[in-house]
Design brief:
Elements: H1 2-25, E1 28-34, H2 46-57, E2 63-68, E3 84-88, H3 103-112, E4 117-121, H4 129-140, E5 142-143, E6 153-154, E7 157-158, E8 173-174, E9 177-178, E10 184-185, E11 195-197, E12 200-208, H5 212-215, H6 227-230, E13 237-244, E14 250-254, H7 266-279, H8 295-299
Parallel strand pairs: 1-2, 1-3, 3-4, 4-14
Antiparallel strand pairs: 5-10, 6-9, 7-8, 11-12, 12-13, 13-14
């Protein structure tokens, strides 16, 4: 009897150790990369935004968050054991990912081939097609393209959401931002409905219909209007989307994030936090990522910028 009890105790201990060991092995690493300061105060606050979102994710079971500020990290090794990376930064020809004659792009592409999840936010979704367009289409299913896409300041209403882990706990909301739309999506799909393309599963997350007035501009740059934007009047547009890639990796694009104070909106913040968990392959809670942001949090770590005249 004593031997049997000892045997059971040993088995339980071994099982517990195995569970603990497995749990430790399942911890995922998310890397957040903030771009250099740009724009007037409380706009494009990449450094403050990344630190705020990292704080919101602090303590999430199974997740380790690291971040780099003020552009590309000094040590590339931050990516080597990462499960996902999110880029919140200026884009276009200045995008941090296309510098160093493509070295950075090749590094991330090699990690994506191994399953690295990728997220790009606001200006960080824009690349010059000849520099990184094909990579972004493969990584996250789309990108902002100058003169094709547009970037008006407007206030869309997000009233319904797909059944997807990223939308868990997200309630309808309306918020003013520089919401890009008419994105260049994979296979030139409009992006406002789900699609399955060459093994990639594409899901629009935040979709709304711009009014005729919004389509007529002005856009932030160039002011427009663009005829092809006007001609799509009545069409809903995707401003956040997610993909599951054939390699098993995941990606998302989020075109909001111009105004720093929008992180104070619970639903705006939750949908992005959920996306960060999802691309890291950390289970998204049924109620979504739970976080709270105070005025003090929103005022923390802001870049020193001259006041807007």
């Amino acid at each position: 009897m004593r031997f049997r009890l000892l045997h059971v105790a040993c088995c339980l201990t071994l099982g517990l150790l195995t569970t603990v060991s497995a749990s430790a092995q399942e911890t995922k690493k998310l890397v957040l990369i903030a771009g250099k300061p740009s724009h007037p105060p409380r706009m494009h606050e990449f450094n403050a935004g990344v630190q705020l979102l990292a704080k919101c994710l602090q303590g999430t079971p199974g997740l380790k968050v690291e971040y780099a500020l003020n552009g590309w990290p000094q040590d590339d090794s931050i990516f080597h054991d990462a499960d996902a990376a999110v880029f919140f930064m200026d884009g276009g020809g200045k995008h941090e990912l296309v510098q160093e004659n493509g070295r950075r792009l090749k590094l991330i592409d090699s990690l994506v081939a191994k399953g690295l999840g990728i997220g790009c936010m606001h200006y960080g979704v824009e690349v010059v097609p000849d520099q990184a367009g094909q990579q972004f289409l493969r990584w996250i299913g789309g990108h902002y393209e100058n003169a094709l896409s547009c970037n008006p300041i407007w206030e869309p209403e997000f009233t319904s959401f797909p059944n997807h882990p990223i939308t868990r706990g997200v309630k309808p909301f309306q918020i003013k931002d520089e919401w890009y739309f008419n994105i260049r999506f994979v296979s030139d799909i409009p992006g406002n409905t789900g699609a399955r393309i060459d093994g990639m599963t594409f899901t629009p997350i935040l979709v709304a219909e711009p009014s005729v007035e919004v389509r007529n501009g002005p856009y932030v740059y160039p002011k427009g209007p663009y005829k092809h934007i006007q001609e799509n009047a009545g069409r809903a547009e995707a401003m956040m989307w997610a993909v599951e890639r054939p390699d098993g990796g995941r990606g998302f694009g989020f075109t909001g994030g111009h105004y720093h104070d929008n992180w104070g909106n619970d639903n705006f913040r939750k949908v992005v936090l959920n996306a960060m968990l999802w691309i890291s392959k950390v289970p998204v809670p049924e109620q979504g990522a739970v976080s709270a942001v105070s005025a003090e949090d929103l005022n923390a770590n802001l870049d020193p910028k001259p006041a807007k005249k």
